[in-house]
Amino acid sequence: MGESRAALLAWVNDLLQLNYTKIEQLGTGAAYCQILDSIYGDVPLPKVKFEAKQEYEYLNNFKILQAAFIKHKIDKSIAMEKLCKCRFQDNLDFLQWFKRFYDDCEPAGYDPVRRRQSTLSNGTLSPSIRSRGSITPSYQTKTPDRSNSRTGRNGALKSGSSTRFTPSSEHLAMVEDLRHQVAEMQSQMETLERERDFYYNKLRMVEELAGQDINPEESAASIVRTLHSVLYGTEDGFVGPDDVDQKFAEMHLQEYDDDDMEDETF
């Protein structure tokens, strides 16, 4: 049985000098990359997005981790699609394996803050994973001076305060175009899903027909017609076979009908 989540979180925070509060936060992949870096010291941390907020950024981190696994011939598959969903159980299982792997390697001393500083874009990590007071002053951003801002009786900001951003017509047009593209892609995805289910059902029906006991008295043409009704059958929203395919199928049906007639003659 693996270690508890509390013990694992304490280990990660102590090793990397971070303040993770939930196992799910490791789903960004950044911590896994640095744990491996603490063992080998050659993970390209500048490419790791420690402040990742989107799933595609999480995937980027896991791809870096996978490349490092391949480089060091680590025989362990990484379920990136599951881990980046930030679900508890998936990340708990992976972290338990990582802890065992780390203990087996027995790495030397490691300075996580120094290794991580070169990756920061604005000098600070996100609040959920901020280092324990170890970021150097040269990497810390300053708090904006708001002394010139004044508030009137009605709560409105006067001179010296920042004004609200108003999007231009060009920006609005871009947003509308993106919305249209998203709607179009969603429609295409729904169509593809329907087609997938449609053809899967056809394969399942053919498989069921193939598994049935064949009646010796049933003609070959009858069997072919049954398969034909399955393969060329349509549903609402789907277009039937074109004229060429339909004529080709009818020719084969006619051949089987002719063969049956010859058999009856003999």
UniProtKB/TrEMBL annotation:
Keywords: Cell cycle, Cell division, Coiled coil, Cytoplasm, Cytoskeleton, Microtubule, Mitosis. GO terms for biological process: cell division; nuclear migration along microtubule; protein localization to microtubule. It is found in: Cytoplasm, Cytoskeleton. Signal peptide: none annotated. Residues 167-240 form the EB1 C-terminal domain. GO terms for cellular component: microtubule plus-end; mitotic spindle. Pfam families: CH, EB1. Residues 116-168 are annotated as: Disordered. Its main location: cytoplasm. Belongs to the MAPRE family. PANTHER family: MICROTUBULE-ASSOCIATED PROTEIN RP/EB FAMILY MEMBER. GO terms for molecular function: microtubule plus-end binding. SUPFAM superfamilies: Calponin-homology domain, CH-domain, EB1 dimerisation domain-like. InterPro entries: CH_dom, CH_dom_sf, EB1_C, EB1_C_sf, MAPRE. Residues 2-103 form the Calponin-homology (CH) domain. This is Microtubule binding protein. The lineage of its organism: Eukaryota, Fungi, Fungi incertae sedis, Zoopagomycota, Entomophthoromycotina.
